[in-house]
Design goal:
There is one protein chain. The protein has 13 helices and 6 strands. The strands form 2 sheets. It has a 4-stranded mixed beta sheet with strand order 2-1-3-4, covered by helices on one side. Strands 5-6 form a two-stranded antiparallel sheet. With about 350 residues, the chain is α+β, with helices and mostly antiparallel strands. The radius of gyration is 20 Å and the shape is globular. About 55% of the residues lie in helices and about 10% in strands.
Length: about 350
């Protein structure tokens, strides 16, 4: 019998994982055949495990043909761009692709702070997550065991707020930033379908992944989203499956003709995420035990995060690889947004 799964991209994930949702939406839009193994149904026999359990886990063949688990969504998205032609999620224009990477990183690394904060800082959100997340991850079990699992998840996740930077000092900054993002994206969606034009980029999928939880699951942030940004709420539901969209190369904005609403989103990135990346990088260089800086006029304190140091390095590498003309276009697009400080002197 022919094994119909050999040509499928395989991943393991759960609905409560924003990065699982990000990558599923990407696969559907790009019409890349895949199979999703729900964590609650158990891992398929023969699939290797990762040292650290992160979702989604993709499985790709190495040079010897053996399956290897991979968990980082951004490099996976770029790998899929190289290995599957057509309906690309990254613009062909290098300057625009760089801007897209910056928006994706903001979604993956800053909006996730809002997602984690709302989920584990409010009683109603903790109760909902504790009740539902274990059912998504563990499958069939008794009410009593499900309750124990939910308490275990909450007990493990709430202390991790310190890693994402959510605490009594930073909480108001995170919530105000989420509200501004909603306002800016809502205004953008009045006239445009996606961040950088009439077709989705990696930045759309990065923000979408976090919004599947912020807008559609966690009660406190969901109420904020419904009240402030009905278009964003609806957009999040629509991006789940864009397989019927027929994109063209002309659907991307030109880097030198970005609408003011895209600029407004970049300004929010520059206002909150850029200073965090710089402060985190300094703390990592200095071997500091704590990141301390000012974001949006308020004191920001969190533990250093090695991965976000890598994120800044990757963005700078992509910027440095731009040709003179493309770098000029990128600089013009970032001018006045606050993001330009990330790339000065390179």
């Amino acid at each position: 019998m022919t094994d119909m799964t050999t040509d499928l991209v395989t991943l393991n994930g759960v609905p409560g994982s924003p990065y699982t949702r990000k990558m599923l939406a990407l696969l559907r839009y790009r019409r890349i055949p895949y199979r999703l193994i729900l964590a609650s149904h158990g891992a398929a026999a023969g699939l290797p495990t990762t040292k650290v359990s992160l979702l989604p886990t993709f499985y790709f063949k190495d040079e010897a043909g053996a399956l290897q688990p991979v968990t980082d969504s951004t490099p996976i998205l770029r790998r899929l761009e190289r290995e599957h032609a057509g309906r690309e999620a990254r613009p062909a224009n290098p300057a625009l692709a760089f801007l897209d990477a910056l928006i994706e990183d903001y979604g993956d690394e800053w909006l996730t702070k809002a997602m984690f904060h709302f989920r584990w800082a409010y009683a109603a959100d903790i109760a909902r997550a504790s009740a539902i997340l274990p059912a998504w991850t563990r499958g069939r079990t008794s009410d009593e065991k499900l309750k124990v699992m939910g308490d275990e998840i909450a007990g493990r996740q709430i202390p991790r707020l310190r890693y994402v930077g959510s605490n009594e000092v930073t909480g108001p900054i995170i919530e105000a930033s989420y509200a501004r993002f909603l306002d800016a994206f809502e205004a953008h969606l009045r006239d445009h379908s996606f961040m950088l034009g009439a077709r989705p980029g990696a930045g759309d999928f990065g923000c979408y992944g976090q919004l599947t939880q912020l807008a559609l699951f966690d009660p406190t942030s969901m109420a904020v989203t419904e009240a402030r940004a009905p278009r964003v709420f609806a957009w999040t539901g629509a991006v789940e499956d864009l397989s019927g969209l027929e994109p063209t190369d002309a659907d991307w904005f030109a880097p030198d003709a970005l609408p003011e609403t895209t600029k407004a989103i970049l300004i929010e990135i520059g206002r909150v995420y850029a200073p965090l990346l710089l402060a985190n990088a300094k703390a990592l260089r200095d071997g500091a035990q704590q990141v301390e800086t000012v974001i949006d006029g308020g004191r920001w304190v969190q533990q250093p995060f090695t991965y976000q140091g890598k994120c800044l390095q990757w963005l700078r590498e992509e910027y440095a690889a731009l040709s003179g003309a493309d770098r000029k276009a990128a600089d013009a697009a970032l001018a006045g947004t606050g993001c330009e400080v990330l790339f000065q002197g390179l």
